[in-house]
Amino acid sequence: EPPLKELTSDEYDAWREVWSHVDLSALPGYAQGARKVYHTLQRNFMSLQDIFCQYSKNGNADSTLMDTHWENFVKDANLVTRTMGVQRTSAIFSHAAVHNKLGQPVLRFPQFVQALVHIAHLRSSPVSALSTGTAKPTPLGKAIDSLVGHLFSRLMEPPPAAPKPPKMRGFAGA
């Protein structure tokens, strides 16, 4: 896939490296929506990396996220719902984690992205005693778009609003 206009050549190379370490093949609906998932994550690559850096051990993209940092992220992002409990978010961390030199489970940025996709999938296709099981699951690409929007609203400062043009007097429609 060609890089999006928003990414520099170096950013695109970094994105491709991250993507090569993300395995979503086991997620239901991934095969049908792979292109949308890829483009959504690519489009939001730098912002997701910024969020990761806010919570990572050393505050950079090459760092790691330990379970306590993950728990802080989940809490700050307000990811826990009736059907997505703390136990489930902890299980997602454990499933996606790799081990550092000390043998501790951690998330590097590719695993963080993978965990976010799993959360998006589970939030959009809840499985619990509370759900009736009759609703159709949200397509994965749309679920990721929704989660990314949620994360941005909770964790990122909105861009400054564009100034409104002055109203002109004496013209029709003003």
Textual characterization of the structure:
The protein is mostly helical. Helices cover 51% and strands 4% of the residues. Strands 1-3-2 form a three-stranded antiparallel sheet. A hairpin with a 5-residue loop joins β2 (98-99) and β3 (105-107). It starts with 8 loop residues before the first helix and ends in a 19-residue tail after the last helix. The model has no long low-confidence stretch (mean pLDDT 83).
Strand order within the widest sheet? 1-3-2
In percent terms, what proportion of residues is strand? under 5%
Quick one: biggest sheet? 3 strands, antiparallel
Classification by helices and strands: mainly alpha
- The total count of helices amounts to 7
Mean pLDDT: 83
Radius of gyration: 19 Å
Low-pLDDT sequence parts: none
Q: What's the layout of helices and strands?
A:
Elements: H1 9-19, H2 30-43, H3 45-55, E1 65-66, H4 67-76, H5 86-96, E2 98-99, E3 105-107, H6 109-124, H7 140-155
Helix pairs in contact: 2-7, 4-5, 5-6, 6-7
Task: Write a brief structural summary.
By secondary structure, this protein is mainly alpha-helical. The chain has helices at 9-19, 30-43, 45-55, 67-76, 86-96, 109-124, 140-155, and strands at residues 65-66, 98-99, 105-107. Strand 2 and strand 3 form a beta hairpin.
What key phrases describe this protein's structure?
174 residues; 7 helices; 3 strands; 4% strand
